[in-house]
Amino acid sequence: MQAATMRLNQNTLLLGKKVVLVPYTSEHVPRYHEWMKSEELQRLTASEPLTLEQEYAMQRSWREDADKCTFIVLDAEKWLAQSGTSEESCMAGDVNLFLTDLGDPSLGEIEVMIAEPSCRGQGLGTEAVLMMMLYGVTRLGLTKFEAKIGQGNEPSIRMFRKLHFEQVAVSSVFQEVTLRLMMSELERQWLLEQTSHVQEKPYRDGASEPC
């Protein structure tokens, strides 16, 4: 049941004002692979560099993973600019939800990466997180969110604080802080207001067309 739930997003496109969220497909792997050659991104995401073949294998495993939900973040302005634009040319980053606490299926760990340098500092990450939280609340039944962020990643920490997350733990071993948001009725209403413009549309691999 959980596996079916997490693969629910494989046919889902979420359209916002600044970003478009689409499922992570093989079309996106080459650009993603180029991003992850960056030592800065490896450090911020605690990732090891992979070969292109390993990256394709990772994409397939993510697609089938029972406890992970991944969307690629597209720059909406580029995506809407002209029909037929390839998604790879519009890619800005990714946003993920992990359901890894077997004792609490209502808790999702959320992370976002705006990897394209030209797309940073424009609010794309903020909208991507809000849209992913909306998806988690309305489609996956989540009521709590956590974000684990490297202590040196001040921009990301500030962003999550602005989204009402509160720091609950610091790990000197992993050099990361844990922030949490409990979705009370007030927070749920706030989230729905912040994302009232978001549209959910059907998605087909590599065939998302601006409407």
Number of strands: 9
Q: What amount of the residues lies in strands? A: 25-35%
Note the overall shape.
globular
Helix content: 25-40%
Q: Quick one: biggest sheet?
A: 9 strands, mixed
User: What is the helix tally?
Assistant: 9
Family: Belongs to the acetyltransferase family. GNAT subfamily.
Pfam families: Acetyltransf_3
Organism: Bos mutus grunniens (Wild yak)
GO molecular function: tubulin N-terminal-methionine acetyltransferase activity
What does this protein look like?
By secondary structure, this protein is an alpha+beta fold. 36% of the residues lie in helices and 27% in strands. It is built from 9 helices and 9 strands. The protein has helices spanning 2-6, 29-35, 39-45, 52-64, 76-81, 87-90, 124-139, 154-162, 185-194, and strands spanning 12-15, 19-23, 68-75, 91-98, 107-114, 144-150, 166-171, 176-182, 199-202. It has a 9-stranded mixed β-sheet with strand order 7-8-6-5-4-3-2-1-9. A hairpin with a 4-residue loop joins β7 (166-171) and β8. α2 (29-35) packs across α4 (52-64) and α7 (124-139) packs across α9 (185-194). The longest helix is centred in the middle third of the chain and has 16 residues, at 124-139. Residues 1-5 have low confidence and may be disordered. It comes from Bos mutus grunniens. InterPro entries: Acyl_CoA_acyltransferase, GNAT_dom, NAT9-like. This is N-acetyltransferase 9. Belongs to the acetyltransferase family. GNAT subfamily. GO terms for molecular function: tubulin N-terminal-methionine acetyltransferase activity.
